[in-house]
Amino acid sequence: MRIHIATDHAGFELKEYIAGKLREGGHEVIDHGAHSYDPMDDYPPMCIACGEAVVADPGSLGIVIGGSGNGEQIAANKVRGVRAALAWNLETARLGREHNDANVVAIGARQHGHEEALSFVELFIGTPFSGDERHQRRIDLVAQYESSER
User: Among residues 4, 32, 52, 72, which one is catalytic?
Assistant: First the structure.
């Protein structure tokens, strides 16, 4: 599977770890930055680029990482067509995919150790959307609002 990934300085070390593990597992990982540690960088450009790439690459998924994951999720969700879910445990990682067909997962590097964060990513990637009519209906309502002119 092709997986897009992005972070700022706060998640740089975790991004490198997760990207390496995903590549070892046979995934194609596309890194949208940060490409080096810079304590003064800002997450929005990288997270938006990751979200845009996921939308332009059907069937791919994305990972955005920061200190808490909150800002990264917000930035990614500004991209039309992105459904980014903040995962803070296995259940939220699974439900993001299963109920919301999330195509991007956000993770807080300052909130979780490497192995725990990787377990969220692996579960997110491995969980299919349920296809349940009520979940699809809700996704469609959000997409309808997103595409409407206001």
Answer: 72
